[in-house]
Amino acid sequence: MTDADLCQGGDMTDFDDPIDSPGGWQREHAERYVATDGAEGHLWNGVPTLLLTTRGRRSGQARRTPLIYGQDGDDYLVVASSGGSDTPPAWYRNLSADPRVRVQVAADRFDATARAASAEEKARLWPVMTAIWPAYDEYQQKTSRDIPVVILSRS
């Protein structure tokens, strides 16, 4: 383990045993996704989803969340919408504290680095994501918070 790992709350191995959402459809979705290597769950309501694992900013515990995704070249894109809430989702606050993440897309699992798209990048990428999930435009209208597009790049 490097000094950087110690400063960031541990190594990447704890990503192998994450906590899923406490209940409801997200937990069931993540469990089914993992159990079937994405054969069940990769497509949800006709759109592609991935599993994003972040490290809890206070607990240091790995936490896994299913999210709709798009692509930009080799990068994956997710939107920190929280359904248009004025508060960003916990996973976004977690990656803001530690950008190292684990991603699962179908059976492919890999470590990545997450970052919010710049304003210029977001102008180009937002339409990519709203083409996949048009409700993102409605979510943005519900809040004064600028909803980020997050870019996930393989490590």
TrEMBL record:
InterPro entries: F420H2_quin_Rdtase (IPR004378), Split_barrel_FMN-bd (IPR012349)
Catalytic activity: oxidized coenzyme F420-(gamma-L-Glu)(n) + a quinol + H(+) = reduced coenzyme F420-(gamma-L-Glu)(n) + a quinone
Classification via SUPFAM superfamilies: FMN-binding split barrel
Family: Belongs to the F420H(2)-dependent quinone reductase family.
Domain of life (superkingdom): Bacteria
Protein name: Deazaflavin-dependent oxidoreductase, nitroreductase family
UniProt-annotated stretches for the region Disordered: 1-25
GO cellular component, one term: plasma membrane
Matches recorded under Gene3D superfamilies: Electron Transport, Fmn-binding Protein, Chain A (2.30.110.10)
Gene Ontology MF, one: coenzyme F420 binding
